[in-house]
Amino acid sequence: MHTSMPHGARIIITRDHVEDLRDHGPSACLTWHEDTHQVEAVGPHTALNPSRMIITGYQGLRELADYYTAEGHEVADDDLALDLTDIAADWRADWPGIRTMNLQVEDLRGALAEAGAYLSTAPTFMLPGHGLPQMTDYYRLAGGSRLASVTVGFGFTEPTRITAEDPDDDTQPIADLTLGTSGTLTHAATSRLIASTVTSALNQDR
Questions:
Q1: pLDDT tens, position by position, for the chain (206 residues)?
Q2: What CA–CA distance (Å, rounded) separates 4 from 1?
Q3: Cα 72 to the chain's mean position, in Å?
Q4: In this structure, are residues 29 and 47 in contact, taking their beta carbons and an 8 Å threshold?
Q5: Pairing of strands 124-126, 147-153
Q6: Which among 94, 102, 155 has a CA at the least distance from the CA of 127?
């Protein structure tokens, strides 16, 4: 489903978007495209386009629904759409920074998509008081429940941190790794190094 809107207008998520994301399945993301101003559920390879702002992933939608259930409320798509509209507004405020970081991690996201690791939910953008911007992506393997968090700094000038956790055993992380990524490797080689480390962490002891 597509929804058009003029530049600068509020991003509105509808129950149709929620249903569309659910229909697309575990590897899909709900995105807003800055050029077309459309909200659309897309597959993992389309989601990595730097012009797409990720609102949530399929797993993020499930976790939002689980929250309602845990609170004893009936899960309604209209309520999920309202919450996602608020979430989209938060991501829109950070969009200039996210857009910049999207360009940096496009190759990394592509390598992970090729390996069957998909974006689980929207990235988190951080602007430290001192230092360069950072962004964290969240990945799952197709058919897996483990979640990997990948935090990169602008230009890979800061070490990249990779953690992997199993939601069925939250006593300790499966992996907690730091990669020095400010050396002499090319951007593409750095992206491949990070991607292989992430997939290894997600596959560990499976």
A1: 444 444 457 899 999 999 999 999 999 999 999 999 999 999 999 999 999 999 999 999 999 999 888 888 888 999 999 999 999 999 999 999 999 999 999 999 999 999 999 999 999 999 888 888 999 999 999 778 889 999 999 999 999 999 999 877 766 678 899 998 877 789 999 999 999 999 998 887 65
A2: 10
A3: 28
A4: yes
A5: unpaired
A6: 94
Structure tokens of 72? 């004893």
Residue with tokens 């249903």: 19
Here the tokens at position 117 are 């690791």
Sorted by sequence, the CB contacts under 8 Å of residue 93 that are 6+ apart come out as none
The pTM for the full model equals: 0.89
